[in-house]
Amino acid sequence: MKNKKWILSKRPVGIPNIEEDFEMKESEIKKPDFGEILIKTQFLSLDPYMRGRMNSGPSYSKPVEIGGVMEGEVIGEVVESKSKFLKVGDMVNAKIGWQEFSTVDEHQVIKITQDQSLPITYSLGVLGMPGRTAYLGFLEICRPKPGETLVVSAASGAVGSIVGQIGKIMGCRVIGIAGSEEKVKYCKEILHFDECLNYKTEDIDKSLSSFGEDFIDMYFDNVGGEISDAVLNHISTFSRTAVCGQIANYNASSPPVGPRVARTLLTKQSLMQGFIVFNFEHKYPQAMSALSEWIKSGDIVYKEDIYKGFENMPKTFMKLFEGENFGKLLVKVN
Ligand code: NDP
């Protein structure tokens, strides 16, 4: 049996070209040595940050090398073990990238120990990196208080949907921004957001004006670009903006130019803080425990968008940038 893996064959300029920038290759499967396990991938997570890893240049994390396996986290089954801690059949989360098999050190994986009543795929979503991002980014930076107004962009997505629902749990008024009528309906009817705007059909600046003046106490920014320019026109004095993601700009071939926000931040005495979830590692157990409880109590509803087929990884990845995913994007290996 051979391993299949997706490598980065070329650095994209602008929107990745799925034919030219990625290549599927085969490689040998290494037998585990003492202290190692062989993992067979069952689910792969597809996340917006992977676009950043395709670029060279300084960032908080190293880029994928040309010829290197595309980065990413998977759910895998241990199929061979020379580990004292992990046995055949154990399910693990592992950052082995876009590949079907990998032999890794036993300490490089995390055994999945979440509540058995919840789908195992949640370990890549609401009980994994996106859930922790939503919980910690929102509570640590936005610091919600009951009665305050929160705006969240990419509102129906893996991170945004959880941020908005935590906002509701905290007693806030929640306004989402999303990219289709179906997503808007989902945010209002299923997630119980107070409002949701469709940025593809509405003038966001104008729509926000209809809610009042300087009324946004917290903005959880998942997208950047013109949506954020519009939202920042309506922030309140002492408001807090958590800069979580800038997906509207990830495929830009040159830095986008926008309004200078410094004056708004000054006159509104407002905080704007970017964050990377890894910085809150010491608080992961707290986040996991709260999110599990909210899922079980029904206070948090969570949607996944699972595609079949390892062969389609690049094509499926691009759905994130076209707004074609509806919920946490995952790929199931056939
Ligand atoms: P989502 O599940 O929200 O999927 C991405 C969504 O972004 C799309 O479905 C689409 O929704 C929206 N989108 C795509 N392109 C654009 C665009 N040009 N303008 C506006 N919206 C766009 O992804 P995640 O929840 O996983 O990630 C959300 C954000 O959080 C990303 O920016 C990501 O990089 C960031 N992030 C940051 C972390 C951190 O530590 N700081 C950790 C994890 C994620 P729609 O149809 O509504 O437009």
Order of helices and strands: EEEHEEEEHEHEHEHEHEHEHEHHE
The structural class is alpha/beta
If you average the pLDDT, what whole number results? 97
- The gyration radius over C-alpha positions equals 20 Å
| Ligands bound, unique | NADPH dihydro-nicotinamide-adenine-dinucleotide phosphate
Task: Work out the helicity level.
Answer: 25-40%
> What's the total helix number?
10
Contiguous runs where pLDDT drops below 50 for at least 5 residues: none
The rounded distance between the terminal residues' Cα atoms is 15 Å
Biggest sheet character: 7 strands, mixed
Shape summary: globular
Account of the protein in words:
The chain is α/β, with parallel strands linked by helices and 334 residues long. Helices cover 25% and strands 26% of the residues. It has 10 helices and 15 strands. It has helices at 49-53, 129-142, 158-169, 181-190, 204-209, 225-232, 262-267, 284-297, 313-317, 319-322; strands spanning 3-8, 22-27, 36-45, 74-81, 91-94, 101-105, 109-111, 149-153, 173-178, 195-198, 216-221, 235-243, 271-274, 304-308, 328-332. The strands form 3 sheets. Strands 3, 4, 5, 6, 7, 14 and 15 form a 7-stranded mixed sheet that branches. It has a 6-stranded parallel sheet with strand order 10-9-8-11-12-13, sandwiched between helices. α6 links the parallel β11 and β12 (235-243). α2 (129-142) packs across α3 and α2 packs across α8. The radius of gyration is 20 Å and the shape is globular. The two termini are 15 Å apart. It binds NADPH dihydro-nicotinamide-adenine-dinucleotide phosphate. NADPH dihydro-nicotinamide-adenine-dinucleotide phosphate is lined by residues 47-49, 129-130, 133, 154, 156-160, 178-180, 183, 222-223, 225, 227, 244-245, 247-248, 275-277, 320-321, 323, 325.
